[in-house]
Specification:
7-stranded mixed beta sheet; alpha+beta
Length: about 325
């Protein structure tokens, strides 16, 4: 059951700050009626569905393979335990395939993009496909009116700029104040976060004048609310979408693997910057999602990255969405 309290549910304190919505983008909603619900080609893959009056489109920025799962997931566990869990779930033990899935939300008044993929820096390795996916779904980058950055790791901010120019030329930007302050700070120089600091200086800081810096509970546009979910990064944010009595959570990088992060939420993940906080956040977020039987979109879940979770001791089981949004 969706209750009023969940509309502004917070995980780490309060502090709402409403943002003014931009003007109506005339004609965009009508133009999308002819777009297919989903497609996959060599160049672009997307999946669209309705959430109340919102049209939600998940776009694949591409995939990337890696070896030795234990070096990323379950780093505080024996390698044998990681392999055993993968085997139990019919997955190979020698490698992983990681996907990147930005989300476009057409509210009827705004076109809101959540995260931007790896951009030009990822193309040689087969990622950086977001702009192609946006066009395949029937939109253009110029139509995006709001770009929301959940956090400032490279696979989320890489597509903000292309050749030194903004990709989303007509957009305003929204991101967490805590996240921005951390990465912009020159104190990152000489630390493991230095490369991230340099990427933020190149990709995010040039857009600062068009950016609203928000806190937990802020409204991005009507029906889209920020929730603090710290741990993966210092100011990592997730977002609740709500339209016409339907709700969905964009969990960003709260969980980065549909088995290793969800079935074992307390296992440490190499990319989680505060590992204890990240584990606690996983439990808070997915307890909420499981309790209220909400759908979610996880940035690194198997494409099209949409599903549900149910409790399965000691964690959760990922249930991919099928036709729930189609009838």
């Amino acid at each position: 059951m969706i209750t009023h309290s969940l509309k502004r549910r917070t995980l780490f304190g309060a502090g709402a700050a409403a943002l003014a919505a931009p003007s109506l983008l005339g004609g965009i909603a009508n133009a999308q009626e002819s777009a297919e619900k989903g497609a996959m080609t060599d160049d672009a893959a997307f999946k669209s569905f309705r959430l109340g009056t919102f049209k939600v489109t998940v776009i694949s920025d591409g995939t990337r393979a890696s070896e030795n799962p234990h070096e990323t997931y379950g780093t505080n566990q024996p390698a044998e335990a990681v392999s055993a869990l993968l085997e139990q779930n019919f997955l190979p033990t020698a490698g992983l395939l990681n996907g990147f899935s930005p989300v476009l939300v057409d509210t009827g008044s705004d076109i809101v993009l959540f995260d931007t993929g790896l951009g030009e820096g990822g193309r040689e390795a087969g990622t950086g496909k977001l702009a192609d996916g946006i066009r395949a779904a029937g939109y253009t980058p110029e139509q995006v009116s709001v770009v929301v950055i959940t956090h400032m790791h490279g696979d989320h901010i890489g597509g903000l700029m292309e050749g030194g120019k903004p990709v989303f030329a007509n957009a305003r930007y929204v991101t967490g104040q805590i996240e921005f302050d951390f990465w912009k700070d020159a104190a990152r120089v000489g630390t493991p976060a230095e490369n991230g600091h340099k990427a933020v200086l190149a990709k995010v800081v040039p857009l600062a004048e068009k950016t609203s810096f928000i806190a937990d509970g802020a409204e991005v546009v009507s029906g889209i609310t920020a929730i603090a979910a710290f741990g993966h990064s210092p100011g990592h944010m997730i977002y609740r979408l709500e339209s016409d009595g339907k709700a969905l959570i964009l969990t960003a990088d709260t969980a980065n693997h549909y088995v290793l992060s969800l079935q074992r939420p307390d296992w440490e993940v190499r990319f989680d910057m505060d590992k204890a906080a990240a584990g606690a956040t996983r439990r808070k977020v997915f307890d909420m999602i499981a309790t209220d039987r909400l759908p979610f979109i996880g940035y690194h879940m198997p494409f099209p990255a949409v599903g549900f979770v149910e409790r399965q001791d000691p964690g959760y089981r990922f249930v991919p969405a099928t036709y729930q949004f189609d009838i």
